[in-house]
């Protein structure tokens, strides 16, 4: 047996022993996870700063704080979620009871990305623990300080046969995907997501894919420009734009373009100063490869705001780029950086054609005071989730499922939806033995007549 075969086998044995099935055990593990995060909080801030130059504010709001909320919410409602759910039974099944039992899958694999390396490793883990699974976490090799810390924290807190961390590059992910797993949860790019899905299909392993895409931010003529600009700048440039649901491009009504762009420039200076490269608090690009890829986009169109770079420290100022079309390289793929292409429209129906150029985005944002137009956008355009008159804030509500559609992902999580993602709903009908309904059997004289009436 290989190293990973032994690991998966040990977790299967742990799972089959039934220890993870009880409410008491799951709650205790969630509490241990919470205590772990609190115990390591100073080092969490330190590792994320080393990997990505994340500020204390960004770590608190987008990584540490989110996880604390998620754990608290899960602990509060877990007993309720675990209960079998009784559902209605049709008259043709008289005497029977119908229930849905909540069954964990077993050994789960969580492959997390580098852009929110703590958040996107631990948030799915909360769901896996709550649902009664074991877990193998494969963090990103591109954020080594945080990945090392995650491994250290998990090793100190949990048994390896319950939860463990495996580090390495793409070849390690490939080996893990070849194992006899029960569920795979992947967050990352569309090309890698396709590889994960192909691997899972060979063993018919159920999966969740949290991917991305080109998320549009649409600002209509009647939008409140000051609020729109402030919320766009926050949503786009937090984590230097390295966010799967960041506004990927701006579609603004021609009549307010100049006003909006001027206000965006003002808001950038308010949040990051006149030169973010020198602030010391601005998130850096994860590595040289991504920095060079983003830098090439600066050769397209017309830069109206920003454009300055610092390759030594891998920093790129918040940048607006105009005079682009859908043939431009920057419009071909998800940008994943602090560059915001600007395009215009005159009629709302044009927006549909723009979004269809890169359809099924993970997120969509629409700024307008017109409720009729808001409804038109929501009902007519396909996207994973989003906001009206804001950006990214839907992620912070654990009552809302988070996930994509089509090329932006499969499945959903957050709050109760994380529990459901890692849970198989097992349908069970409990039939009475106090009597037997003769009409259900083929030799019943009145059976056909009764069944015809019942099944109408």
From TrEMBL:
Domain Aldehyde dehydrogenase per the UniProt entry, residue ranges:
3-428
Record's Pfam families? Answer: Aldedh
InterPro entries with a match to the protein in the record:
Ald_DH/histidinol_DH, Ald_DH_C, Ald_DH_CS_CYS, Ald_DH_CS_GLU, Ald_DH_N, Aldehyde_DH_dom, Aldehyde_DH_NAD(P)
- Keyword check for Oxidoreductase, yes or no: yes
Residues annotated as the enzyme's active site:
210
Give the domain of life: Bacteria
| CDD domains found in the cross-reference section | ALDH_YwdH-P39616
Q: Which UniProt keywords apply?
A: Oxidoreductase
Family listed: Belongs to the aldehyde dehydrogenase family.
The protein depicted here goes by the name Aldehyde dehydrogenase
């Amino acid at each position: 047996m290989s190293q990973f075969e032994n690991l998966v086998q040990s977790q299967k044995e742990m799972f089959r022993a039934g220890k993870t099935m009880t409410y008491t055990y799951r709650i205790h593990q969630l509490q241990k996870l919470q205590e772990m995060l609190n115990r390591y909080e100073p080092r969490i801030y330190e590792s994320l700063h080393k990997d990505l130059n994340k500020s204390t504010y960004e770590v608190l709001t987008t990584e540490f704080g989110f996880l604390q909320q998620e754990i608290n919410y899960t602990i509060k409602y877990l007993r309720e979620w675990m209960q079998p759910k009784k559902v209605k039974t049709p008259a043709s099944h008289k005497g029977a009871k119908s229930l849905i039992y909540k069954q964990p899958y077993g050994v789960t694999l969580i492959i997390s990305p580098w852009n929110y390396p703590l958040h996107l490793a631990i948030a799915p883990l909360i769901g896996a623990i709550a649902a009664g699974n074991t877990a193998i976490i494969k963090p990103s090799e591109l954020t080594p300080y945080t990945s090392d810390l995650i491994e250290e924290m998990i090793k100190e807190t949990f048994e390896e046969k319950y939860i463990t961390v495996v580090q390495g590059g793409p070849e390690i992910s490939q080996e893990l995907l070849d194992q006899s797993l029960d569920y795979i949860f992947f967050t990352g790019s569309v090309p890698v997501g396709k590889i994960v899905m192909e691997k899972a299909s060979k063993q018919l392993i159920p999966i969740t894919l949290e991917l991305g895409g080109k998320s549009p931010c649409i600002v209509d003529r009647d939008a409140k420009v000051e609020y729109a600009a402030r919320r766009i700048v926050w949503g786009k440039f937090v984590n230097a734009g390295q966010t799967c649901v960041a506004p990927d491009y701006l579609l603004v009504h021609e009549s307010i373009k100049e006003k909006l762009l001027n206000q965006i420039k003002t808001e950038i200076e308010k949040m990051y100063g006149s030169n973010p490269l020198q602030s010391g608090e601005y998130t850096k690009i994860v590595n040289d490869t991504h920095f060079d890829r983003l830098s090439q986009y600066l050769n397209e169109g017309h830069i109206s705001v920003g454009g300055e770079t610092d390759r030594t420290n891998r920093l790129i100022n918040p940048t607006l780029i105009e005079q682009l079309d859908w043939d431009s390289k920057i419009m071909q793929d998800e940008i994943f950086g602090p560059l915001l292409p600007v395009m215009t429209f005159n009629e709302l129906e044009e927006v549909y054609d723009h979004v269809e150029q890169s359809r099924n985005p993970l997120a969509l944002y629409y700024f307008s005071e017109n409720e009729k137009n808001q409804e038109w956008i929501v009902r007519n355009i396909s996207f994973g989730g989003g906001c009206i008159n804001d950006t990214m804030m839907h992620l912070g509500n654990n009552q809302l499922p988070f996930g994509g559609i089509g090329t932006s992902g499969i499945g959903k999580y957050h709050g109760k939806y994380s529990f459901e993602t890692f849970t198989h709903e097992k349908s069970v009908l409990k039939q009475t033995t106090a009597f037997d309904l003769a009409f259900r059997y083929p030799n019943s004289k009145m059976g056909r007549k009764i069944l015809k009436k019942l099944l109408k």
